[in-house]
Batch of 4 targets.
Target 1
Amino acid sequence: MHAWLCENPVGVDALQWKELPTPEPGAGQVRLRIEAASLNFPDLLIVQNKYQMKPPLPFVPGSEYAGVIEAVGEGVKHLKAGQRVACLSGTGGFGTHTLAPAALCMPLPEGFPAVDAAAFIMIYATSHHALIDRAQLKAGETVLVLGAAGGVGTAAIQIAKAAGARVIAATSSDEKCALCAQLGADATINYSTHAPQGSLRDEIKRLTEGKGPDVVYDPVGGDFAEPVFRSIAWRGRYLVVGFASGPIPALPLNLPLLKGASIVGVFWGDFSKREPQANAAMMQTLAAQYAKGLIKPLVERTLPMSELKQAFAVMGSRAVKGKLVLVN
């Protein structure tokens, strides 16, 4: 097998494409021949040693992938060789083969392409857990999605619309706003025009007729958090999803008091481990929604697995709409 090996987590440039022994699965594992793997923001952080999970060195990055099972380890009863699955295990995806925990593998139904499957679990599980479980989103409520043209943002638009909500998508260009509208957003905000320290609050107020959004989905953080929280509706729920802009914001705690609002943490990774039955039920719901055409990953482009460094450069430019996927 071949894989991108991280022996020194100082950044993307240190990754090397190397030939490695093809491993045999241990107890509870399966060996996959990887068909496709997607890029996620944590994949960049982990090779820079900036992510909360720090795997032992050396490791193969690539948190999310899809492929065909070649061999199963001891104790694996629900999966078999030849079966196609998707998996989000945190590492291992940027190569030709990997060992995956059988418990984390999502069996793929017929007609679920590998490229879509490799771009599916993280963004839809995160967004569904956030909006439906943590925010208890109801039909008719208004959701403001920040970073709406990115991977989790595009998933959040689709899941909120499937739940019957009104969606305001905020992103950084007119082109991205148009894309969000195509995905179902009812209104858009270009925050290059309506900046956080400028007219953003006025535009949110205008689009919500002074009420504010019931739910805010925020994978961006930074300068957006305080002005957006100040705009939230009474009993609003502010979903802390991530900090793609870099800085982790600090909010004055009088704001949730005055708004009767909640700051709600979203950590799908720990939810999946602490509440595996609830997570498995959620994944079945998401697979059914995919089959009905209610949700579908937005994949901007696919690249050969050998072009991982170029893919990271594209992702780092913030120009990506949806997801980048590497294919073998």
Target 2
Amino acid sequence: MSASGGTKAIVAALSANLAIAVAKFVAFLFSGSSSMLAESVHSLADSGNQGLLLVGGKRAQRQATPQHPFGYGRERYIYAFLVSIVLFSVGGMFAIYEGYEKIKDPHEIEHWYWPVGVLVFAIIAEAFSFRTAIKESNPLRGKQSWSQFIRRAKAPELPVVLLEDLGALVGLVLALGGVGLALATGNGVWDGVGTLCIGVLLIVIAIVLAAETKSLLLGESAGVDEVRKIEAAMVDGDTVTRVIHMRTLHLGPEELLVAAKLAVRHDDTAAEVAAAINAAEARIREAVPIARAIYLEPDLYDEAAAKRGTNPGMTPAPDSSPH
């Protein structure tokens, strides 16, 4: 996995979650708090998720084969999608079930100092992991807002770790609130309510992750800046006069496919056109290094056909019809 894949953030999150999962489970054994049990399962699920991200990053590095000529870059998207499934089922649904059971049959929390102490420790550890993920994300985020970064990032690992860490911190606060209210009122129902809130939170995060990863699996185009750089690199103003139409597709976070039809002058020789196409490919790779697979087709631009919308190479207008 490349540095942009956020390996450091994943390892930091994995280390924190393993330690926290053990501590939470010990606290559950001593206190009987359902919030602690839900949080321990949550941390265990997060640890498994970070393991999945590392496995996906490793498998994505395999060389292309005749059966998979564009390589295995999308494996990172597949494993990120598996993370959302684990978070939904193991984390969210279990917490909702456990919260329901605790509300139906509440019991007092014993040895209150165990869950409170572990939750404080977990908040500190998760905050460290979250800080690492933020530091790793900032160079890639640039001027984008955090919501824009999560929606537009082509590498899935950092958005996944960011959302998991944010969910973990909010979940810990909810667990601490549930345990605190249960201790203050002597009513174990509050512990169950806190557990239910944790379950709902995890399911919401899992749905967001699934939606974003689904978009990557379907195939996203290059970003606006990359598209502009590619278009500018294609046209030399001499042999290549304009871009008739272009399509881009991410084969993986650091692998981009570019396919375009370029307008050339009608009186250029085949040798001149071939040289211009080769030069355009070189300029594209220099401008956008992740453009690995480039297919350029020379053609003659028909302005009348383009205006009528009958030019098959014309980029279609955005669909304004309701979906």
Target 3
Amino acid sequence: MQSHLVAALDIGGTKIAGALVDDSGRILVRAQRPTPAREDGETVMRAVEAVLAELAASPLWAGAGAVGIGSAGPVDASAGTVSPVNVPGWRGYPLVERVRRATGGLPVELVGDGVAMTAAEHWQGAARGYDNALCMVVSTGVGGGLVLGGRLHTGPTGNAGHIGHISVDLDGDPCPCGGRGCVERIASGPNIARRALENGWRPGPDGDTTAAAVAAAARAGDPVATASFERAARALAAGIAATATLVEIDVAVIGGGVAGAGEVLFAPLRRFIRDYATLSFVQRLTVAPALTGTDAGLLGAAAAATPAARGRAPVTFSG
């Protein structure tokens, strides 16, 4: 029987993924369901329970000592609740208690999805070896997390580094979070696609209107698609540079579905970083694509729960 396994959950606006992960970061069992994001809170919870039930059906489940959750935010790790902007049925939802109940009382650790991705990238990815890093998930939403002084910095409620909801356009569009001109409102996948469509871009014969389709059009030279990605890159650069100036990070790691656009995103992002990160102590800031891919949320959730599984002080994810 495997020992020291962790059940990991990665909860976002599009999918709920689960896995059994060992202490070396190997994913041994997987499960996944679509997120019924527009349904009521209990319907969303039933999807979470279905993922957990599929994991529990594995003979390896007996080796699981804890559950780690990386959830779209904001989260309140101190209260065990979540209020994801893209899942309106969950507001102050007691996710930790519900998952603990569904798993027969296993210890549960909750972090935001950006913090989970940060833990994964600092443990096994592009932020490995850096003592000060910002890691970002740019997908349906935009999340982030910080490593400061070689340690994961989560803040009191687990939301430190939540760069998606800082304003980079004071007169910009209202954001579902209640703010205006947020990084997420400009740089998330749905908003890249929305802006391209509003400015005259039209999808191909397959009718695909996702950010991936906009990226493909930009790669083929479509000026409207290119402009939408450049606007997203500028927003990301402004947010990253502001963060670097505030806390002196050495690297910004970008993951999530939008990062799959490759140089369509990263070429203008690196260019705009030079425009915004102008002070001497941030000019050497590095921007890099994430390495842990679509498993970042699961690996980071597992890393966050490892202390509970082993009954010792939190790990620092310093490699």
Target 4
Amino acid sequence: MNTFSVIPSMVQLQLCVSHLLYIFASVFSTVFNWTSGVFMPSTSSVSQVDIKVDQSIVKNETSPTSVNYHFTRKCNYKCGFCFHTAKTSFVLPLDEAKRGLNLLKQSGMEKINFSGGEPFLHDKGDFLGKLVQYCKQDLQLPSVSIVSNGSMIKEKWFQKYGEDLDILAISCDSFDEATNQLIGRTQGRKSHIDNLHKIRNWCQQYKVAFKINSVINTFNIDEDMTDNILQLNPVRWKVFQCLLIDGENAGEDALREAERFVISDQMFQEFLDRHSSVPCLVPESNEKMRNSYLILDEYMRFLDCREGRKDPSMSILDVGVKEAICFSGFDEKMFRERGGKYVWSKADMKLEW
């Protein structure tokens, strides 16, 4: 069930009209600035336009309980199936990013997950660390997490920011270095597996819950990861089915060609069956994954993936969370069915450090 399915048809029309009015106002404001001899960026000019959605629309709004903020697209890995590719090097200024996070908190956000790209690349991880501190100390969010390939993380980052981080998820698709090379999850001669174990130990030392994310594809579909996962003992092992997104890892304008990585639903289920004894396994098929995540891009726009591509909303910095989220395509029912809300604060996990 998507957002529009719970909104009456007349309200849907009002939302569409509001969306069109916003676009018209944005274009008119920009043209006016041009003809006046003054040009202002669209974000600044749009903020002067007072276009609001009827209150009858927002009463059924979706709450941004858990948000994934991809604040950068830059990455030092070249994973062939990546579905959030490095199309731009843009990153919001820190103050603007904090303003957006505060808007999300005011609208009901409980968990923020920072991702990329590779989030530790920008400003050597300090930008990310400052956002983590802000979300935990200032906004007092119950859960702050990160997804990273792990290659850029240093121990001094844990020393400075680890106290405010609840969960660190490291992406690892194989425990065979040759397979990681084929996938593109590697950098030079560094061992991705050795680094994974090092970060696991740091998480234990600095009291950060450790998680592993794996994308199952044609190169690792026959691998048995049971012993390695049990040894690392993550709080969650999130297992994704390789997903195609037009314009990202599929299609004419894509930077990746992930078709050769795609596996069938049956193949994915066979992999899950092989690992059914792993207690921390959390499987996510394409059906569950596509519409059940609230994704913010580097401009703080929600990304709607319902049509197999990423269609951006307006930025929450321009129109606020309530209006932008209506165009996110978020399926809150599927979010809950896939176990999107769980014990995500390390204070509540009762882990033995």
